[in-house]
Design goal:
By secondary structure, this protein is α+β, with helices and mostly antiparallel strands. It contains ten helices and 19 strands. It has three domains: 100 residues, OB fold (Dihydrolipoamide Acetyltransferase, E2P) (Beta Barrel), CATH 2.40.50.100; 99 residues, Irregular (Dihydrolipoamide Transferase); 220 residues, Chloramphenicol Acetyltransferase (2-Layer Sandwich), CATH 3.30.559.10. The protein starts with a strand and ends with a helix.
Length: 428
């Protein structure tokens, strides 16, 4: 018999939530098949079977468990009351990768609801399989309650599974029903009370709960302050336009703006080491390395993979690393180790259209840079009004570690490097 345990996913992680069982109790599974999904405050991971066997679940989905906790077993016997089932005698129906109940009609749906004259189409069968076997119970109940057609929903969970968030977003995106005909003077109806308004209550996911906790922690346990500036992006845009095709051909990756900002931030952090430091009890730890976190949006929330030793990387290395992270986030394969150890963070709200914002610190880091949308604006250059591509930038910092002068000067240094990108090449 093989125990199924909550795996260790990083030194700082002490517990994880068993978010979803991907197999049912009693299913026969093969070594390497995905059994369950666990969620931490930073990432969602699938746990695979370490051997062949029959699954016996010991913990329900949705429970927070310590690292190392046994949540199930894999054995060659169904249970103490059932005869042993050798691997060689397991029937194809049991060994099928789909749960056996996929072919059965759910007990809580009356047979009268399924007309005999209306055979299930392939599309309807696929939807039924998704609804009955590849959703956690809470999602299945929500689908049944709302009557939504799951064939129109694109799942963002592991292996394309449908989550509660997918169902709610689909319902929100549906067009509102047309207004009823105007009422006659003789007809009066009492106005509905507030309690009659439709409300859908759904629990926060473990990742969203942890994000909320960390944001509140950052606001309550730091002396956060933000300084602002604006950057003329015209020189960088011209340089990028000039060399982007050659860059793509040589390095096989696109030349974006993020590599310029990562290099500029590293140059500024070297000049102002307090920005790259953090508080540890009564001490300040100054990092002599530069691990730059880059915030990336995902269906499960914002994640911040870390570019390690960014000071040792060129433009192509930085762009390739970011592209690699994006692909792993899309496929749900990002590892927890790739999210830990950052000393400074860059967040680009401009990709969503943000003109200006105050980014919140990513504890225990002492500073974060917020980038925003590039917008053409009239500015004064050499006493003449010209049109330039401008970007507002914001540097939030922990005033306990960083003085205002240091923060303002650091942001000014970043501005100088972006407005004169040759500084990055000459390292001046």
């Amino acid at each position: 018999m093989t125990d199924i345990k909550i795996p260790g996913v990083g030194e700082s992680v002490r517990e994880a939530v068993l978010a979803q069982w991907l197999k049912n109790d009693g299913d026969y599974v093969r070594k390497g098949e995905s059994l369950l999904v666990i969620e931490t405050d930073k990432v969602s991971l699938e746990v695979s079977a370490e051997s062949d066997g029959i699954l016996h679940t010991l913990a329900p989905a949705g429970q927070a468990l310590p690292i190392g906790a046994v949540v199930g077993t894999l054995s060659l016997e169904r249970n103490a009351a059932s005869p042993s089932v050798p691997v060689e005698t397991i029937s194809p129906a049991v060994a099928s990768p789909l749960p056996a109940r996929a072919a059965e009609k759910p007990a809580d749906i009356p047979s009268a609801d399924i007309p005999a004259s209306s055979p299930r189409t392939p599309e309807a069968h696929t939807a039924a399989v998704l609804a009955e076997d590849f959703m956690i119970p809470s999602v299945r109940r929500l689908v049944e309650k709302t009557g939504v057609d799951v064939r129109g929903i694109v799942g963002t969970g592991p292996d394309g599974r449908i989550t509660k968030g997918d169902v709610l977003l689909y319902l929100e995106a549906k067009p509102a029903p047309s207004a009823p005909p105007a009422m006659t003077a003789e007809c009066t109806v009492a106005a509905p009370s507030i309690s009659d308004e439709p409300i859908i209550r759904t629990p926060m996911t473990p990742i969203r709960r942890r994000i909320a906790e960390r944001l509140v922690q950052a606001k309550q346990q730091t002396a956060m302050l933000t300084t602002f500036n604006e950057i003329d992006m015209t020189p960088v845009m011209a340089l990028r336009q000039r060399f982007k095709e050659d860059f793509q051909k040589k390095h096989g990756v696109s030349l974006g703006f993020m590599s310029f900002f990562v290099r500029a931030c590293v140059a500024a952090l070297k000049d102002f080491p307090a920005i790259n430091a953090r508080i540890d009890g009564a001490d300040i730890l100054y990092h002599n390395y530069y691990h730059i976190g880059v915030a990336v949006g995902s269906p499960r929330g914002l994640v911040v993979p870390v570019i390690r030793h960014a000071d040792r990387m060129g433009f192509a290395d930085i762009e390739a690393t970011i592209a690699h992270f994006v692909e792993k986030i899309k496929s749900g394969k990002l590892e927890l180790s790739e999210l830990e150890g950052g000393t400074f963070t860059i967040s680009n709200g401009g990709v969503y259209g943000s003109l200006l914002s105050t980014p919140i610190l990513n504890p225990p880091q002492s500073a974060i840079l917020g980038m925003h949308k590039i917008e053409k604006r009239p500015v004064v250059v050499d006493d003449a009004i010209v049109i330039r591509s401008m970007m507002y930038v914001a540097l939030s910092y922990d005033h306990r570690v960083v003085d205002g002068q240091g923060a303002v000067s650091c942001l000014k240094r970043i501005k100088e490097c972006i407005e004169a990108p040759e500084r990055l090449l000459m390292e001046i």
